[in-house]
Automatic annotation (TrEMBL):
Cross-referenced InterPro entries: MBL, RibonucZ/Hydroxyglut_hydro, Xnuc_lig_assoc
Name of the protein in its database record: Ligase-associated DNA damage response exonuclease
Superkingdom of the organism of origin: Bacteria
PANTHER family attached to this UniProt entry: BLL1145 PROTEIN, CLEAVAGE AND POLYADENYLATION SPECIFICITY FACTOR FAMILY MEMBER
GO MF annotations, alphabetized: exonuclease activity; ligase activity
UniProt entry keywords in alphabetical sequence: Exonuclease, Hydrolase, Ligase, Nuclease
Native source organism of the sequence: Chitinophaga hostae
EC number: 3.1.-.-
Amino acid sequence: MNVLQFTDNGIYCPAGDFYIDPWKPVKRAVITHAHADHARWGNEYYLCENASVPLLRLRLGNDISVQGVAYGETIFFNGVKVSLHPAGHMIGSAQIRVEQNGEVWVASGDYKPEHDGLSAPFEPLRCHTFITESTFGLPIYRWAPQQQLFDNITQWIYENQQAGKASVLLAYSLGKAQRLLYHLKDKADHFLVHGAIAIPHDVLLQEGWPLPPVERITPETPKSAFKNAVIIAPPSAEDNAWMRRFHPYALGICSGWMQVRGNMRRRNADAGFALSDHADWPGLLEAVTATGAEQVYVTHGFSSVFARYLSEKGINAREVTTSYGDEEMITNPEN
């Protein structure tokens, strides 16, 4: 039974008449998380996890019709059972579990099995069919433990301060930036941030998330404020006039793509930290195995490689084409 179908508009449930993360406007959309490639403007109705509601309103406008549900809460669309479960990708991210006549499909969206301490930890779900991302679906991508990464970032900041330099960390504005701030909150007196980070950060602070206060950088911010400072900016701020005010500074890039050292050199960065909100190769395999799925569809990323590997391991896997991107992409990081 094809509980879900891949269509020109997105992942569609015919019996329930809803789409999951549609890339074209539809009547009813169930959203995995608030990143722009998964939550697009123009749908008549949105369903998401409760924590994603203010983020969707921020990204898409206060006038959207959006309903929030708790993790594990069950709702029905035309008799089809739907529930949202933690994906561990960012605050409010969810896997969508869809059950029709005893057949269970799970669309995972973006996910990571390692608990980041801020977003709800990934929940393995048993199912017949699993739809998985493959952003880092190559064996080379194996993340160091989170604590080790943040110890390295903290040491780098300390060395910069000893050298009289500001520390500029590039991280995606929604999700990654808050993860950085959460884990560094006891390592710095205060943080200066780009406006693209300050806006969603303020929304999350208002919602009660345990994040440190930040200072938004404006044209009026004095140059003296940048001395030895910790500055967090989106990747789109790299190599433009906005950065020049921070001299002297060291540049660190926080992205899974930094696992390949050549990427750091090509971007002329002083440091690269392979900090990702996506599953690495072992994480992808762990997640797929935990589902017990008889059938796996592999979407955005190294989909052909990962699908082929799963097939060689005896899993019925195939690649499917979607319009999802990757907020960590080097060439176009701010999608």
